[in-house]
Amino acid sequence: MTAPKGYYRNLISDSNIRIAFTHTPIYGCTVVDSSKVMNELEKSQDEYAPYYLDGLKRGLMITIVENQNSNGYLRPGELYFKS
């Protein structure tokens, strides 16, 4: 079962934390301890909570926060212009 994109935001209390896949490089973010998020997911009765919990336990997903100086997620080879 795969959860809808960004659905984890409905399950965790800290709006600054994001859950990201480890196979996709994301720049401008810092990895944070996932124990608080995992505790919330364990207590949740939502049908998608086990999907995120399993991903975090198996190392397929990590919890991150955006750096203050970053304006978005950047991947290698992508170029963004600001006007």
* Secondary-structure element pattern, one letter each: EEHHE
How are the strands of the largest sheet arranged? 1-3-2
What is the β-strand count?
A: 3
Radius of gyration: 14 Å
Number of domains: 1
Q: What is the mean pLDDT? A: 84
What is the secondary structure topology, with strand pairs?
Elements: E1 17-21, E2 29-32, H1 35-43, H2 49-58, E3 61-66
Antiparallel strand pairs: 1-3, 2-3
Describe the 3D structure.
- The chain has 83 residues and is an alpha+beta fold.
- It has one domain.
- Helix content is 23%, strand content 18%.
- It is built from two helices and three strands, in the order ββααβ.
- It has a three-stranded antiparallel β-sheet with strand order 1-3-2.
- The longest helix is centred in the middle third of the chain and has 10 residues, at 49-58.
- The mean pLDDT is 84.
Feature tags:
alpha+beta, three-stranded antiparallel sheet, 2 helices, 23% helix
Put the structure in a nutshell:
The chain has 83 residues and is α+β, with helices and mostly antiparallel strands.
